[in-house]
Amino acid sequence: MELSERQNKIIEIVRANQPITGEDIAQRLSLTRATLRPDLSILTMSGLLDARPRVGYFYVDKGVSNLTGEHIKKLKVADVKSMPIVISEGQSVYDGIVTLFLEDVGTIYVVKDGYLSGVVSRKDLLKNAMGKNDLEAIPIDVVMTRLSHIIYVEEHTSVYEAMAKIINYQVDSLPVVKKVITDGKELLEVVGRFSKTNIAKLFLEMAEGK
Ligand code: ADP
């Protein structure tokens, strides 16, 4: 929204003198209260000013909400990640379901020789549990999302980027990995889990001023 010169002046006056009454603002600008009314309406409706009955006008500091954004951009995944819950390739879909319940998570990571090879979510397991399959006979690697399709983050990734990945790829969690080069091949060691719960916890803590 493009502000008029007068509207900008009003904002300056309110910022410097808040709370300030409409009458006071009018006096400082040598205008009548009635002349000022449309400008004050526009500024309050657009959220730049806040009007409180019998108190006056306040400037709504957009900088405050930006502070939240800045804070999230500075935070690293390492600051908020949880422990990863892993299962080995070769274990069964049944083992996966048991692990999901015992560890109380929605996603488990599959490892092969200690390195990430897949991701299994609630729905992956549910899909297989719906048929008359022998869940103990189906290896977890048959139902998992494979390495080449996995969206992951590293400990130094910003929380902001991790949040964007969760939303853009529509997944509930991201494995946190450490890249290891072995025999010229890049392998991913699983060192954590970054999930929607981590995001909710972070916002709760920020709301509580921690
Ligand atoms: P669900 O749909 O079970 O509630 P998700 O939305 O996280 O859980 O998973 C949807 C699909 O995406 C599943 O097939 C799962 O294997 C896969 N998936 C989950 N997390 C990831 C990830 N980080 N990278 C790639 N695929 C994932």
Automatic annotation (TrEMBL):
InterPro entries: CBS_dom, CBS_dom_sf, CBS_domain-containing, HTH_11, UCP026546_HTH-CBS, WH-like_DNA-bd_sf, WH_DNA-bd_sf. Residues 144-210 form the CBS domain. SMART domains: CBS (SM00116). Signal peptide: none annotated. Keywords: CBS domain, Repeat. The keyword Repeat applies. The keyword Zinc-finger does not apply. It holds the Pfam family CBS. This is Helix-turn-helix transcriptional regulator. It comes from Alkalicella caledoniensis. The lineage of its organism: Bacteria, Bacillati, Bacillota, Clostridia, Eubacteriales.
